[in-house]
């Protein structure tokens, strides 16, 4: 069964969704079979597109919506939320 799930997550790290953070997000999203989309400020982009994620301009404190469609949608959302909540693996 195909699921479509979404979560709103606040970007925590100091530099927001910058190049290194966006690259980690893309890498993590690509591990899942679910299709990932990210929405910020009424713009929706593919979760595996580094340039598109950067163009969102999501700074610290931005609330982004992550949507996952597919069999592992729940696991994908949990994984990506964890990545964001741990500052993309970066020290503050």
UniProtKB/TrEMBL annotation:
The record's Gene Ontology cellular component field reads: cytoplasm
One Pfam family in the UniProt entry: PTS-HPr
Q: Which GO terms describe its biological process?
A: phosphoenolpyruvate-dependent sugar phosphotransferase system
Q: What is its main location?
A: cytoplasm
HPr domain segment(s): 4-91
Record keywords: Cytoplasm, Phosphotransferase system
Q: Which residues form a coiled coil?
A: none
**Localisation:** Cytoplasm
The family line of this record is: Belongs to the HPr family.
**What is this protein's name?**
HPr domain-containing protein
Please report the organism this UniProt entry assigns to the protein.
Parvularcula bermudensis (strain ATCC BAA-594 / HTCC2503 / KCTC 12087)
Mind giving the lineage of the organism this protein is from?
Bacteria, Pseudomonadati, Pseudomonadota, Alphaproteobacteria, Parvularculales
């Amino acid at each position: 069964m195909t699921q479509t799930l979404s979560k709103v997550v606040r970007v925590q790290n100091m530099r927001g969704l910058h190049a290194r953070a966006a690259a980690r997000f893309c890498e993590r999203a690509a591990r899942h079979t679910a299709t990932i989309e990210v929405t910020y400020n009424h713009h929706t982009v593919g979760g595996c597109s580094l340039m598109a994620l950067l163009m969102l301009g999501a700074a610290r404190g931005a609330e982004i919506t992550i949507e996952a469609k597919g069999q592992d949608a729940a696991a994908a959302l949990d994984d990506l939320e964890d990545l964001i909540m741990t500052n993309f693996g970066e020290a503050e």
